[in-house]
Design a protein that fits this description.
Keywords: Coiled coil. By secondary structure, the protein is mainly alpha-helical. It is about 80% helix and about 0% strand. It contains 13 helices and two strands; from the N terminus they run αβαβααααααααααα. α1 runs parallel beside α2. The chain is elongated. The N terminus is likely disordered.
């Protein structure tokens, strides 16, 4: 059988124009293959022997150049079969990958939404605190205005007239506010409520009927016209606000100036003082000049360092004020303050990029630091000038007192003493004003901290109440579960007890039934035995009668 297989393969190979390369272990196939070739047509064919030590032990086919006779084969046989399992596996893998990507996108969306809600909640808390602070400041300023008007109205007829004019002006402002609220603000809220009601009524209608579409078109038109009118009103209000701010700046320049100005040189009060020692006066003036030059150089250096950093473009006064107000709302000790600030800034200035906001923040911080240093330098300068003036007045007074009996008359000494007293009173008044300002600032800060503490206590109380309510609910839930479990166990015990009783009664009934069936069986068996005995006796009696009859009718033959 091993030699017949190579012969058959050789014949098939000759008919198809290919040569069979025999295996190394096949010895008889070469001779048989040459015989078949010479008998088939005599075409010379080169036989190729496999190299020695080749790992291919099977028979190999090689093209020999002989034209093949193509058998009649259907077209579907020449096509490669589809690997459906492989294709289905790839499709399933792609589908699972898409599902994983969809889950990842959904998780990313949910995470982004939660983060956005957390940021909005923190912004809301900060704005509530700022709103309380602004409301407190508004009430405080109104009380101060009323107190000043009341005090000024008690000074005389002019003060009463001014008080009446201011009260009339305040009443006019209140009337204008009420008129604006009634004719501009309230209609907007009414329209908002009507639109919500209309949307709620037509929320489930898909598609909308023609009447609803016409109403929707009319509503869009009315809202567009209303929005245009409100935009014009807002622009007019902004323009009026800017005009009023400009008028205030022009009318009260020293009160709206960013920093106070210090007059250089020797004060006129010092020139009016009589100094008996000219050298002392020159030394004091030289000391004041050196003091002014020192602080002037320090201010010049600060301004030079500040001028090196140019302000980023694209920021007007209103945007700068809003930027500064947003940064002031968030306390310095707030966790993640920078993240919250930039999130709020990106929401407030959507047309600004993150780089523009960061560059302006850097410039603003540097500028604020420069202003603080400049303000401190000016305060130190003013304090040093006042100290110099007090020291100069003291030294001049001492010099005057030492030379009063020789060079000055009594009236001149009194006049100089009066001037010194006036200067001393001014200094004392300045000190009192500064102390009052410091106390007011401390009081404002304490009230602000108190209001913030009250808000935090309310939030803590709400959170504690929520947690206590959750604990109570959890305890009630646990008690309900324990009660339900106990009732279930009791019901199970009752059912088991009932089952035991039923089983016991059933076993008793079964025993009685078995006993009854046994007695009935024995009774039936006894009755059947008696019946059988009776039948046997009847049969025996019948046989006896038959025997008697046979004996009576028996034929006797001789």
């Amino acid at each position: 059988m091993k030699e017949e297989k190579p012969d058959a393969m050789a014949e098939v190979a000759l008919t198809r124009g290919v040569e069979v390369l025999p295996s190394i272990n096949s010895n008889s196939s070469l001779s048989k293959l040459e015989k078949n070739k010479t008998a088939g047509g005599g075409s010379p064919v080169k036989s190729v022997e496999p190299p020695k030590g080749s790992p291919k032990k099977r028979k190999m086919l090689r093209f020999t150049g002989v034209p093949r006779a193509r058998p009649d084969v259907s077209p579907t046989r020449s096509l490669k079969p589809l690997h459906n399992e492989r294709i289905n596996g790839l499709a399933a893998a792609k589908k699972s990958t898409n599902r994983i990507l969809d889950r990842a996108d959904h998780f990313k969306t949910v995470t982004h939404t939660k983060k956005e809600l957390a940021l909005l909640y923190q912004h809301k808390v900060i704005w509530e605190q700022e709103y309380m602070h602004l409301q407190y400041m508004e009430d405080r300023l109104q009380r101060e205005i009323y107190n000043h008007l009341t005090i000024y109205g008690q000074l005389g007829s002019d003060g009463q007239l001014l008080l009446a004019d201011n009260i009339n002006f305040i009443l006019e402002i209140e009337e204008e506010k009420a008129f604006f609220r009634e004719n501009v603000v309230d209609p907007l809220w009414y329209i908002r409520e009507d639109l919500r009601e209309w949307v709620r009524q037509h929320e489930g209608l898909r598609p909308l009927p023609d009447s609803a579409k016409m109403q929707h078109y009319q509503i869009q038109k009315e809202v567009k016209e209303l929005w245009t009118g409100y935009k014009e009103i807002a622009e007019d209000l902004i323009k009026e606000q800017r005009d009023l701010e400009q008028q205030v700046k022009e009318a009260l320049p020293p009160y709206v100036a960013e920093e106070k100005q210090i007059a250089k040189g020797v004060p006129p009060e010092f020139h009016e003082l009589y100094c008996p020692d000219p050298q002392l006066k020159e030394n004091l003036i030289a000391e004041l000049t050196r003091l002014d030059d020192s602080y002037s150089n320090r201010l010049r250096d600060l301004d030079r360092n500040c001028d090196r950093q140019a302000c980023p473009g694209g920021w007007n006064d209103h945007d700068a004020a809003v930027f500064e107000h947003i940064l002031e709302q968030y306390p310095a000790d707030l966790p993640d303050r920078r993240v919250l600030c930039f999130d709020r800034l990106k929401r407030t200035f959507p047309h600004k990029t993150l780089g523009q906001l960061m560059s302006y923040e850097t410039w603003y911080q540097n500028n604020r630091f420069h202003k603080d240093r400049r303000k401190k330098c000016l305060d130190d300068w003013a304090r040093e000038r006042w100290s110099w003036l007090l020291r100069a007045v003291t030294e001049v007074s001492q010099a005057q007192q030492s030379h009063a009996g020789h060079q000055l008359s009594r009236d001149e000494a009194l006049r100089q003493k009066f001037k010194c007293e006036v200067l001393r009173q001014r200094v004392e008044q300045w000190r009192k004003e500064k102390e009052n300002e410091r106390l007011q600032h401390a009081e404002m800060e304490a009230q602000r901290k108190l209001a913030l503490k009250v808000v935090q206590q309310r939030q803590a109380a709400k959170e504690e109440y929520r947690r206590e309510l959750a604990r109570q609910r959890l305890a009630a839930y646990y008690e309900e579960r324990l009660r339900f479990q106990k009732e279930s166990e009791e019901a199970l015990q009752r059912r088991m007890e009932d089952a035991r009783k039923v089983t016991k009664e059933r076993s008793k009934h079964d025993k009685e039934r078995v006993r009854y069936r046994t007695e009935l069986f024995y009774a039936n068996q006894k009755e059947r035995r008696e019946r059988m005995l009776k039948l046997r006796e009847e049969e025996k009696a019948r046989q006896q009668r038959l025997d008697q009859l046979r004996k009576q009718v028996q034929v006797k033959t001789d």
